[in-house]
Amino acid sequence: MALNTDGKMIGRWHPSRRSMEVEAQVTRALRGGTSAMRSMGPVFLPPDAREIRKHDEYQKRLLHTFLMPAYDRAVARIAAKPFQRAVEIKGLDLLPENARLLERNCDRLGTSLTRFANTLFDQGLDTGIMHVLVDMPPATKMDGSLMSLKDAEDRDVRPYFVSVHADNLIDWAWDDEGRELAYVTIYDEQSDTNPETMEERSVQRLRFYSRTEWQVWERVND
Question: Of the four listed, 83, 150, 156, 218, which is most buried by Cβ atoms within 10 Å?
Answer without folding.
Answer: 83
